[in-house]
Amino acid sequence: MKKIAPRQDDGGGGDCTPLVVTNNCGETIYPGIVIQSGDGPPSLGFELQPGDTNEQCVSKDWQGRIWGRTNCSFNDDGTGPNGGGGGRACGTGDCGGIVECKATGEVPVTLAEFTLNAGDGQTYYDISLVDGYNLPMAIVKRDVHNASLDDIPPNLTNPSCVATAGELASQDYDPYSSGDFLGTNSSFPLPFDSNVSDSQVASWCPWALQVTVPSEPEGGVYTYPDTNVERPIFDPCYSACARYNSDQDCCNGRYNSPTACQPSEYSKAAKAVCPDAYSYAFDDTTSTFIIPAGAGFEVIFCPGGRSTTILSSEADQLQELQDTGSVSGMVVYAPAQERIPDGMNWMRHLRLGY
What we know:
It holds the Pfam family Thaumatin. This is Osmotin, thaumatin-like protein. InterPro entries: Osmotin/thaumatin-like_sf, Thaumatin. Keywords: Disulfide bond. It comes from Aulographum hederae CBS 113979. The strands form three sheets. The protein has a six-stranded mixed beta sheet, with no helix packed on it. Strands 3-5-6-7-10 form a five-stranded antiparallel beta sheet. The chain has helices spanning 147-150, 198-203, 240-244, 247-250, 265-273, 310-313, 315-324, 346-352; strands spanning 3-7, 17-23, 30-37, 53-58, 63-69, 111-115, 122-128, 137-142, 160-161, 289-292, 296-301, 326-327, 330-331. By secondary structure, it is an alpha+beta fold. It is 14% helix and 19% strand. The radius of gyration is 20 Å and the shape is globular. It contains eight helices and 13 strands. A hairpin with a 6-residue loop joins strand 6 and strand 7 (122-128). The protein has a single domain (3-201, 266-352), classed as Thaumatin.
């Protein structure tokens, strides 16, 4: 594995929270990063070949998003698509046809979302499929040589979403027979979903939400879903909100509440294949990870293995960590915080100050 040298902010005064991005996919990708607040990394877009890792720094109060761009072709200086002219340079996740992103990528994309310090001493993060799905992703908490954070069991903090055909491990998958996996080990094993099969992963995206919908057969119309029509291996999927932009699908207008906005067919399918991922706007109680502030993170594309079920399998320990800063006798320094009211979107919680 080749590591790209860390690029630190010269004005950071040693305030370096690790933000690492790794590509375990079989193809080159171009990760994109957008800064929502705080001091972000110097590079907001870069090439990452298979097996490569990019290490950068962000401020302790950084808030932002990371996603992967696929099938990209840029000109030599990265200011536009290869071949000249304007338009898109990437098949998915494009951000204005340039390498260094200045805005969030075009949907559909799998997102890693971070608020490193919300002002309450907590870090909030998640894998989001609210804008759709294009690549498998995992988030791994990185050691920062702070015993109070490093002692948090890693099987509580490192979610994974694998919803691509051919990337899913077998249903009896055990990664620990050959060593560690996603920052965890046999002493603190990740809980994996064992129900979803590879055939389900290959067909979970609702028919009309596929980026490339197969054309109708000559002389007839296939029924939905038609298992005789083979889907592509790389099958990015729009969310219902991203495709239709309706108030009902996007939880806007009169649907802007947990009771009024219910999961769509897409949301239910996404949650089935990635139980720890956000699937729609009010899915926060089963999608948001909350730990004491101060940790760094690594985003891994195509992590392998299977999707995790941390938030449901380890709910009691996670609530204990959020409320008291301690887990099963392990002392984690953090003041007890007020619990986010059930059903309240965590981003709304941060914005409204509840």
